[in-house]
Design brief:
Number of helices: 18
Distance between the termini: 73 Å
Strand order of the largest sheet: 2-10-9-8-7-3-4
Length: 416
C-alpha cells in the first residue's frame, strides 16, 4: 500500500513538472540538412548546407599561421585571468584598424568604441542592445531581402523591430539595385539600416563600388544609421582592403556607424568565437561614454569574453611575419572558392545546360544562390544525395575538384 502511494506521488510530481507546457522547438534548418546528410549511405553524397570552409578533400582546415600563433602564445606562458569586459585592448585596436584602415580618420583620431564579442553573432547582439538602449530614432532595423537567417531573431531578441527592403532579384539571381534604392528612400528618417559589407549571406550578391557610393548618398540623405555586418573580410575576394571598401567609403563620407566583425571565416576560428563590435563616434570623449555603456550591456550577458581566440587573432593581425602568412592563406581559401565557382559553371556548360549560369561566377563568397526551386531542391537531394537548404542556397566550401562534375550533372538533371 505504502509502495503504491509512493509510486502515485512520483507520478503526480512528474505530471506537474514546471516544464510540462514547453513545446518542442522546430529544428534548425541548416543543422537538419547536416543530420540528413549523415544518415545518407550514398558514397557520392555532398553536403552543401554548412557554412564552414573545407579544403579540396572536404576536410576542415586549420591555418598554419594560426598554429604558429598558438605556439607563440603557449611559449609566452600567459595566465588565464579574466579579460576586461570590453576584451583584449590589442585585439580591439587591431580589429578597428583592419576594418577602417590604419590611415583612416576613424583610427587616427581614435573615434572608435570597439569591444571584443563572442564572434559575429555576439557582436550583432551587443550592437542591437546598444541601439535599443541609446538610439534616438525608430527602434527598427531594416534588413535586405533576404538576409542571414539569424539577423531577425538577434535583433528581435534585443528588443528591436525588423523590416525589409528589396535586395535580391530572383529572376536574374543578381541585385535588385533599383528596388533597393526605391525602398531605402522610403525608410523613415533616423532608422537603422543593416548592410552586408561583402559576400552577402545568403545570396553572394554584392553591390559594385559605384552602387555602394550611390547607397551611401541615399542613406545619408535619408539620415539613416548604417549597421554593417562584416563576417567575410578578405574571404570574399582574397583582399582585406577590397572587401572593406563599403565600410571605409561610408566612414570617409562622414557616416557614423555600428559595425560587427567575425573572425570565424577569414581566420578559420569558428569554434573560438572571436568577433568585435564597433560604434564610431564624433570625439574621443564620446568614445569613452559609448564604450562605458557597451560594457554595462555586456556585463550581465557574459561578463567578459574568452581570451584564447582573441590572442590568436591579435597575433595574426599585429605580428608582421604572421600577418603576411595569414593574408596569403586567406587568399588561398578565397581563390579555391572562386575556382570552384568557375569549374561548376564550366561543368554545367559541358553537361549541355541551356540555362544562363553566369550568376554562379558573378556572386562572391562562400554562398551561392543557385536559383533552384524547392521542388528541384527536393529532387536533387532525393535522386542525387546533394544536400542544401530549401531556398536553393549552396555553400561553395562544400564543392571540390572531386565532386564538382557530379554536382553539375545533378543540377543539370533537375533543371533541364
Amino acid at each position: 500500500m505504502l509502495s503504491s502511494f509512493r509510486n502515485m506521488t512520483r507520478a503526480s510530481v512528474r505530471c506537474s513538472s514546471w516544464w510540462s507546457h514547453v513545446e518542442m522547438g522546430p529544428p534548425d534548418a541548416i543543422l537538419g540538412v547536416t543530420e540528413a546528410f549523415k544518415k545518407d549511405t550514398n558514397p557520392k553524397k555532398i553536403n552543401l548546407g554548412a557554412g564552414a570552409y573545407r579544403d579540396d578533400n572536404g576536410k576542415p582546415y586549420v591555418l598554419k599561421s594560426v598554429l604558429k600563433a598558438e605556439k607563440m602564445i603557449a611559449d609566452e606562458k600567459l595566465d588565464k585571468e579574466y579579460a576586461p569586459i570590453s576584451g583584449l585592448p590589442e585585439f580591439c585596436k587591431a580589429s578597428a584598424e583592419l576594418a577602417f584602415g590604419e590611415n583612416s580618420a576613424v583610427i587616427k583620431n581614435k573615434l572608435y568604441a570597439t569591444a571584443q564579442s563572442i564572434s559575429g553573432t555576439g557582436a550583432l547582439r551587443v550592437g542591437g542592445a546598444f541601439l535599443k538602449a541609446f538610439h534616438n530614432g525608430p527602434k527598427v532595423v531594416w534588413l535586405p531581402t533576404p538576409s542571414w537567417g539569424n539577423h531577425t531573431p538577434i535583433m528581435k531578441h534585443a528588443g528591436l523591430d525588423v523590416k525589409q527592403y528589396r535586395y535580391f532579384d530572383a529572376k536574374t539571381c543578381g541585385i535588385d539595385f533599383k528596388g533597393a534604392v526605391e525602398d531605402i528612400k522610403k525608410i523613415p528618417q533616423g532608422s537603422v539600416i543593416l548592410l552586408h559589407a561583402c559576400a552577402h549571406n545568403p545570396t553572394g550578391v554584392d553591390p559594385t563600388p559605384e552602387q555602394w557610393k550611390e547607397l551611401s548618398q541615399v542613406i545619408k540623405q535619408q539620415k539613416l544609421l548604417p549597421y554593417f555586418d562584416m563576417a567575410y573580410q578578405g574571404y570574399a575576394s582574397g583582399d582585406v582592403t577590397r572587401d572593406a571598401f563599403a565600410v571605409r567609403y561610408f566612414a570617409e563620407q562622414g557616416h557614423q556607424m555600428v559595425l560587427s566583425q567575425s573572425y570565424a571565416k577569414n581566420m578559420g576560428l569558428y569554434g573560438e568565437r572571436v568577433g568585435a563590435v564597433t560604434v564610431t563616434c564624433d570625439s574621443a570623449e564620446e568614445v569613452g561614454r559609448v564604450l562605458s555603456q557597451v560594457k554595462i550591456l555586456i556585463r550581465p550577458m557574459y561578463s567578459s569574453p574568452p581570451v584564447h581566440g582573441a590572442r590568436i587573432a591579435a597575433k595574426l593581425m599585429a605580428t608582421p611575419e604572421l600577418r603576411k602568412e595569414w593574408l596569403v592563406e586567406l587568399k588561398g581559401m578565397a581563390d579555391r572558392i572562386i575556382t570552384m565557382r568557375k569549374m561548376l559553371r564550366d561543368n554545367l556548360t559541358k553537361e549541355g545546360s541551356k540555362h544562363n549560369w553566369s550568376h554562379i561566377t558573378d556572386q562572391i563568397g562562400m554562398f551561392c544562390f543557385t536559383g533552384l526551386k524547392p521542388n528541384q531542391v527536393e529532387r536533387i537531394t532525393k535522386e542525387f544525395s546533394v544536400y542544401l537548404t530549401k531556398d536553393g542556397r549552396i555553400s561553395i566550401a562544400g564543392v571540390s575538384s572531386k565532386n564538382n562534375a557530379y554536382l553539375a550533372h545533378a543540377i543539370h538533371e533537375v533543371t533541364k
